Prior knowledge:
Blueprint: E1 14-17, H1 20-31, E2 36-38, E3 45-49, H2 53-63, E4 72-74, H3 81-84, H4 90-99, E5 104-109, H5 116-119, E6 124-128, H6 133-142, E7 146-147, H7 162-169, E8 175-178, E9 189-194, E10 197-202, H8 208-215, E11 219-220, E12 246-248, H9 253-257, E13 262-266, E14 278-281, H10 288-303, E15 309-312, H11 320-333
Parallel strand pairs: 1-8, 2-8, 4-6, 5-9, 10-11, 12-15, 13-14, 13-15
Antiparallel strand pairs: 2-3, 3-7, 4-7, 5-6, 9-10
Helix pairs in contact: 1-6, 10-11
Amino acid sequence: MLIKFEKPIYKIMELLEATPENIKKAAGLLKKGKLVAFPTETVYGLGANGLNPLAVTKIFEAKNRPSFNPLILHIAGKSDLTKLTSTTDEIIEKLTGKFWPGPLTLVLPKKNIVPDIVTAGNPTVAVRMPGHPVALKLIELSGTPIAAPSANLFGQLSPTTAGHVVKQLGNKVDLILDGGKCKVGVESTIIGFVDGEIVLLRPGGIPVEEIEKITGKIKKFSPEDTDSNPLSPGRLPFHYSPAIPIRFFDEKIEKEITGKKVGALLFKKSHTGTNFNKVIYLSENGDLHEAAANLFYALHELETADLDLIYVEPVPEKGLGIAIMDRLKKAVKKYT
Length: 336
């Protein structure tokens, strides 16, 4: 007997170029409580109407993200910050004046308009104004802040192309806007205010040294939060991991790679002595901005290269190297 269904059993995901017409279509979906993946300058975000608790719930379901892990609200204008938070400190005005739009997230006391599911019950909310024309137009047309973590499965590699989103989330998303490869390549820097001090909650796309030119010395908030109440995204002990084991280079390398298919992620063209099945350089001339932009893209390439193990070369922990090493250390920790 032939059974007919009025509607398809599975949701049909759309992958569309980020044209003005398609951005408008995506904004309409957000207004209806749907999920849209979209490009930012950092990584692709998985967006929902940030003031609609039911819509935000779909983000956690699609990503298999624990509900105790807060989200970032993305806004299209600096004036929107006052609608979501109650802080008007002069230092906030200086930071947003210098780094917005751009990869800086501020964690500030929230107003009641922000749903608790966005903040995981915390009295603070993370907010940023992305520096990408597609993201800004999408937020503007949707008429609401967009809650958006990275558009990946929880704990796995962040996406820097629309193809990465398709690979991990597929039909869990109603529409994916393809805006090409992300330029920054690592998530935003997150700054918070704890006990009267300015603290670094997550290193990211703006080097902390640049922020300190405005704020003075910033304290790194440690130890890592427990898994029960992180103050912001990016605080959990392991994250950003490929689906195959990843290790830093060490003296045991020759013994560990025997009989295995091994890939290498190298900072620049300097490492010699070991034969690998696949080698990718983050930046052949050692440029940290280029290395950051290529980090997740390279890890996605190695993840799908039929390898048993990935070895990665540490980068200098200065400037954007701090953010790169933060991601790599958390990726490696999953397999140690």
